[in-house]
Every structure is written in C-alpha cells, then in structure tokens.
UniProtKB/TrEMBL annotation:
Organism of origin: Marinomonas rhodophyticola
SMART domains: FCD (SM00895), HTH_GNTR (SM00345)
InterPro entries given in the database record: GntR_C (IPR011711), TF_FadR/GntR_C (IPR008920), Tscrpt_reg_HTH_GntR (IPR000524), WH-like_DNA-bd_sf (IPR036388), WH_DNA-bd_sf (IPR036390)
Residue span(s) of domain HTH gntR-type: 1-68
This protein's name: GntR family transcriptional regulator
Gene3D superfamilies the record matches: GntR ligand-binding domain-like (1.20.120.530), Winged helix-like DNA-binding domain superfamily/Winged helix DNA-binding domain (1.10.10.10)
C-alpha cells in the first residue's frame, strides 16, 4: 500500500469515526507535520477526499471536512425511502443464483468490516450494496440517481451516523437476499422501507466542529 493510500485511509477513517468532525479545518502544514510528508502529498490526499465529497476545498480558505446540513441529511434518506423499495419488483425479474451469490459475498465483506470495527469500510460497502442492487432493476436513470444518493448517504453517515446506522441494528442485508431468493417482492419492499427508515432514525443531527484538533496525536508517526 502506497504512502498516499495509507494517509487517505487514516484520514477517511478519522472523518467517518468523528475524530475529524464535520466542519473541522484541515490545514496542510499541520497535517504535513503530523504525517511526516510534504504538503504536496497532503494536498493530493485532500483533493481525493474532496472528489468523494468528504472534504471541501475553498480558494483562500483551504480544506475542511464537509458538513452536510441536517435538512440535506433528511432529504437524502427520504429520497431513498421513496425510490429504492419501488425498484424491487423490477429487480426481481432479473434476479438469479449468480446475483444471489455475488451479493452474499458483499454481505460477508460488510460483516467482516463491522466485526473488525472498520466503520469507514462498513459505510462504503453498504452504499455499494444498495446502488449495485438498484442497477439490477434495469432503469439506468434511477440507478444513477440512487448511486448519487448512496454516495451522499456515506457522507451523511460519516457526519451524523453511529455504528448502529450501518450495523445489524438496521437489519442484516442477508435477510433481504433471502426474500429475493424466494421471490417475495412485497416483503422485500417492506424490509427495505423499514431498513432505510431505521437508518434515518439512527442519525444524531447534532455535530460540532472542534477547532483545536491535535493532528500530531491523531496522526503522528
């Protein structure tokens, strides 16, 4: 694993686990000192995080952890609740044993991340599970929209979520796959609706940025 990748993973984990809270400033000089690398190396990592919407970079202001509004958080989850269950009947017309096996592998990866307390990986894996399911429905426009909503949900969970937001407290994805295998569309729709509503209710819509973050303690080598 490259040095840039190691720094990226450490910063992403710190954002997702709220060690770097929404709105926290990310000064290149202090991060460079903490990681023991050049500011150019830090800038590359910050730009990558910005492309994934976990960080915002503003001219003359530098970088900070992105801070989705509370209204945005609720609107994104409400949009998913409206759309994703409705895709299930069409999804089931394409469902087969190969799909079942592929998605069960994803569930195994999710459980491994959860058991290993890898919250950042858990958030990214659950997003992938949902938007790859949406692609099976055959509507490319809606699938693309769901994909964007899932990416935005990843940031929202990083800002306002808890471990319960991506763990079994919100429902084990393998339960959904069992319903797909049996062709139970109505039950699967109800499961998905409940699942997404539970994620929404798990959000803690209060978060304060700490302007006195000790980057050396957090990332020092």
């Amino acid at each position: 694993m490259s040095n840039d990748e190691i720094i990226y993973r450490q910063m992403l984990n710190a954002i997702v686990e709220h060690q770097l809270p929404p709105g926290a400033r990310l000064p290149e000089d202090r991060l460079s000192e903490a990681f023991g690398v050049s500011r150019t190396g830090i800038r590359k990592v910050l730009q990558r995080l910005a492309l994934e919407h976990f960080v915002v970079i503003e001219k003359n202001k530098g970088a900070q952890v992105n801070h989705p509004s509370k209204a945005e958080a609720l609107e994104v989850l409400d949009s998913r609740i409206l759309i994703e269950p409705q895709l299930i009947p069409d999804l089931l017309t394409h469902w087969n044993a190969e799909h079942s096996e592929r998605f069960r592998i994803m569930v195994t990866e999710e459980k491994h991340a959860e058991d290993s307390n890898q919250l950042a990986d858990s958030i990214q894996l659950t997003a992938r599970f949902h938007y790859e399911l949406a692609t099976l429905a055959g509507n490319k426009v809606l699938a693309s929209f769901v994909q964007q909503l899932c990416y935005r949900s990843s940031l929202i969970l990083a800002a306002y979520g808890t471990r319960g937001s991506v763990g079994c407290e919100c429902g084990d994805h393998s339960e959904l796959l069992e319903l797909f295998d049996k062709g139970h569309a109505d039950e699967a729709q109800n499961w998905m609706t409940h699942h997404l509503k539970h994620i929404k209710s798990s959000l803690i819509l209060e978060s304060k940025a700490d302007e006195n973050i000790d980057f050396q303690r957090l990332f020092g080598r």
